[in-house]
Amino acid sequence: MTKRMILPLLFGLIGCAILVSLGTWQVKRLAWKESMLSEIDARITAQAVALPDSLDQQDDLYLPVQATGMFGADRIRVLVSQKKVGAGYRIISPFTTQGRTIMVDRGVIPIAGELPAPPTGEVTVTGNIHWPHEVDSYTPDPDEARDIWFARDVDRMAAKLGTEPVLLILRAATPATPEITPLPVSRAGIPNDHLSYAITWFSLAVIWFGMTAFLLWRIRQRTV
């Protein structure tokens, strides 16, 4: 090995080591994310319990709940877009159970669909408690004139409907409202791209190694 090859060799080895370490880190992140998603799946599909007296946004996220009560006449329409389906409105309604009034995300209706009247009499609802993080600095304020909201803001919706700041995402109701299609909580919106990131870093490491080997070969050819 000539002196001219030492610096490119060190540069190549350090670069490969960095890229491999980044790929390894993404593999570890993948294992962590898959474990987290499995825990979320288990929590979402667990046996439903009665609505607790108090709820914690961290400990009770996705908590399965079953309650019997009555829907109020008021509601909020939240614009939503579904893949392969198109735009629609989520229907958020007040729901009174055991002397308390919470909110229930009953599901979605088409943009042009007619909103059915709330069921009369008692309804048993089963779903998951959730605090969606859909509001950011780019989210428009609700369009009161057209009765359209652009995100689910639990505190603001509760103030509008006069309920507790508790949102249950409906999974099933008895009796059901056929005109409204439930959109149950799922992990579908939680990204898990760590495998593709790991493949990218390891691929770059292979390319870096190949370029380094080619450069060293060229240097050696010139010194022969």
Keywords for this entry:
224 residues; elongated; 3 helices; five-stranded mixed barrel; 2 domains; OB fold (Dihydrolipoamide Acetyltransferase, E2P); alpha+beta; 6 strands
Task: Set out the fold topology.
Elements: H1 3-44, E1 64-71, E2 76-82, E3 86-97, E4 100-110, E5 123-129, H2 154-161, E6 167-174, H3 194-223
Parallel strand pairs: 4-6
Antiparallel strand pairs: 1-3, 1-5, 2-3, 3-4, 5-6
Kindly describe this structure.
- The chain is an alpha+beta fold and 224 residues long.
- The chain contains three helices and six strands; from the N terminus they run αβββββαβα.
- It has helices at residues 3-44, 154-161, 194-223, and strands at residues 64-71, 76-82, 86-97, 100-110, 123-129, 167-174.
- A five-stranded mixed β-barrel has the order 1-3-4-6-5.
- The mean pLDDT is 91.
- Keywords: Cell membrane, Membrane, Transmembrane, Transmembrane helix.
- Belongs to the SURF1 family.
- The chain crosses the membrane at residues 195-217.
- It holds the Pfam family SURF1.
